[in-house]
Known about the structure:
Blueprint: H1 3-17, H2 27-33, E1 44-50, E2 60-64, E3 67-72, E4 76-82, E5 85-91, E6 98-104, E7 109-117, E8 124-130, H3 132-140, E9 143-144, H4 176-183, H5 195-201, H6 204-213, H7 219-230
Parallel strand pairs: 1-7, 4-9
Antiparallel strand pairs: 1-4, 2-3, 2-5, 5-6, 7-8
Helix pairs in contact: 6-7
Amino acid sequence: MSKNFLCAIAIGLALLSGCASVPMAPKERDAELKTFKAPPQDQAALYIYRNSMVGQALKKGVSIDGKMIGETANNVYFYQLLSPGTHTLATESEFSDNAISLNAKGGETYFARQAIKMGAFVGGAKLEMVTAAVGRKEVLRSQLAISTPVSGTPAPAAAPVPAVAAPTAAPVAKPLAAERASAQPVAATPARAPAAAVASSKSRAQQLDELAKIPGLSYEEYQRRYRLITQ
Length: 231
């Protein structure tokens, strides 16, 4: 047995016995997907998981309809929403991809297992569909890894944009003085009683007597009032 062949076997065993790591999704999203909520009627849900004891140091790419969605590590799973119809699921293997076909129906959930197998130099891989009972049990033991959504998957409908009411013209502000004048009632100015009416109510002597008793009157004001009384 040649030295190169022994080295190749040693490298293969090292790869098969180690541990690989891939980008993981948030734990909240992982917990949400483990409720196994049914997808919308116009889509199908697909879980692809890996839980093989062999080849834990290997990362194996998975593709759907020819598009790579990500690489797996042990005890991880991918989640994808697919449009109804026939899809090709493939996994990277030792020399070429291994593929299977899935005829997806809207509103249904499917489970595919990726298995790692011994190879000539490095481990190979294959995909196989499993029942919902088996798939759910194995996904619950795995963690969600980040994957690229498959092109052609219907995008979530955009939230409707609420209609914006046309702006109404702001009322023209009144000048401050006018606003105050309109807000406050104007008190009627009592009309001054004619001098004759005053004189008729009191005698001239009484009026002159009261005029003389008013304190602080200037001489000019006293003369003006005196003339009014004595007219």
